[in-house]
Specification:
about 280 residues, alpha/beta, Rossmann fold, six-stranded parallel beta sheet, Cyt_trans-like, Nicotinamide-nucleotide adenylyltransferase, NAD
Length: about 280
């Protein structure tokens, strides 16, 4: 079986992954951009991976950003969501899913925490690691800090518009300081979702999904419980890992919580955004 060493890491052993972060801009006139997808990833699917590619294409053709890297950040076990397998498994599956990618990394920092971390804190972590620890990108025009942006499905914006789901201060902090690249999804009225977020419209980029894809982690878990094939819905190494570990089977093996999600207002993080 393929192994993914991040899954057995402890916080004392943690180092921020930078090996897939682009070292310099190909076009110095652009602003470096790092995409961060937060969510449960239980399990990661081809749609999660495809979102990065769609956002990168959008940024290249429609903005002055240049994508210099991307990260998957899975929630920790304290999220308390039904169907959420242990963080070790989710880190392993995400690591296996991006083995062949040259620019998408898995950062286990969030998942290694025992306490739940709000999305704002997670994005602050990336801001610190990339722009303070690593430092700005050197260009002929002078040093440029990377723009850190949240990558999510359209249902994230929908939850931000719903009263009581997010703390208003968290919405303002995330959309003012980081912004978001939002992938359109079937069943979500993006115009309605954006109607209450107009003050941040310049920092929200809506990416059209030209090839419709409604794969979700929820459906993958349902297929597993029904003993149905999940091949070609998730990466093959992830299929093998799920089967070998007996995840998402009828008995709910390795699930951290069977109770319904009990997140507090303002703590919907990326999980709702990924339909997980």
């Amino acid at each position: 079986m393929s192994s993914a060493p991040n899954g057995t890491m402890t916080m004392n052993e943690y180092t921020f992954p930078t090996e897939r972060l682009q070292s310099q801009l190909r076009d110095p006139s652009r602003t470096p951009l790092v995409l961060v997808a937060c969510g449960s990833f239980s399990p990661i699917t081809f749609l999660h991976l495809r979102m990065f590619e769609m956002a990168a294409d959008y940024a290249r053709f429609n903005t002055n950003f240049e994508v210099v890297g991307a990260y998957i950040s899975a929630v920790g076990d304290a999220y308390k969501k039904s169907g959420l397998v242990k963080a070790e498994h989710r880190i392993n599956m995400c690591s296996l899913a991006v083995e062949q990618s040259s620019w998408i990394s898995v950062d286990p920092w969030e998942a290694l925490h025992e306490d739940y971390l709000e999305t704002a804190k997670v994005l602050d972590h990336f801001e610190h690691e990339i722009n303070t620890v690593r430092g700005p990108f050197n260009t002929p025009e002078g040093p440029k800090k990377a723009k850190i942006a949240l990558l999510a499905g359209a249902d994230l914006i929908q939850t931000m518009s719903a009263p009581g789901v997010w703390a208003p201060k968290d919405i303002d902090y995330i959309l003012s300081n980081f912004g978001a690249f939002i992938i359109e999804r079937a069943g979500t009225d993006i115009d309605e979702a954006l109607s209450t977020l107009q003050q941040w419209k310049d920092n929200i980029h809506v990416v059209q999904q030209l090839v419709q894809n409604d794969i979700s982690s929820t459906k993958i878990r349902l297929f597993r419980k029904r003993d149905m094939s999940i091949r070609y819905l998730v990466p093959e190494p992830v299929v093998k890992y799920i089967e070998e570990q007996g995840l998402y089977d009828e008995d709910g093996a390795s699930s951290t919580h069977e109770a319904q999600n009990s997140k507090k207002a303002g703590e919907s993080a990326g999980a709702s955004s990924q339909n997980v």
